[in-house]
Amino acid sequence: MKPTPRTAAVLALGAVLIAGISACSIETSAKADKIGVVEKLPEDLDQAKSKENAQEFRSWVDAHGSAQEKDAVGRVQRIIGEWNKRTGNAYISTDISAGKTQEKDPQAAASAIAKAFGDWQNSDQGYASVYDVSGNAMITNYKF
Questions:
Q1: Of residues 120, 121, 114, 117, the one with CA closest to residue 86
Q2: Model confidence at 15, in pLDDT bands (50, 70, 90)?
Q3: What's the whole-number average pLDDT of the chain?
Q4: Has this prediction a pTM greater than 0.85?
Q5: Using CB atoms within 10 A of its CB, is residue 14 exposed (0-12), middle (13-18) or buried (19+)?
Q6: 119 within 8 A of 65, measured Cβ to Cβ
Q7: Between the CA atoms of 78, 136, 117 and 56, what dihedral angle is there, to the nearest 10 degrees?
Q8: In what order do the strands lie in the sheet with 125-131?
Q9: Pair 77, 54: CB distance under 8 Å
């Protein structure tokens, strides 16, 4: 086969495609559905940090939150994500069993957690989602 500019271009394109397919990609944000909702708790790539985030949140609510918020935020296990004063996404993992009848009011607890998070981290364009013990969304995209 005689090399021609056309052959070289096809081979170069093939090399780029193969390199793109085999390249590793580390996602730092969760995969949302078509309308931007993350129905399942994303993977926790830094459990020490997410537990530290949860502890800082619980401490702030202990000092500043309402009785309902204090009770609800005690259920927070981890907070995954990144946020600052301008933007961000927080994925809040709890030990709430949303499908269990013995839970007093799981949806009210999730709402109190989302509201308390919004009070703690006030961003221009930040969103918090609260997940039950099984990693299923209870509250999604609460603006904080």
A1: 121
A2: very low
A3: 81
A4: no
A5: exposed
A6: yes
A7: -10
A8: 76-83, 87-94, 125-131, 137-143
A9: yes
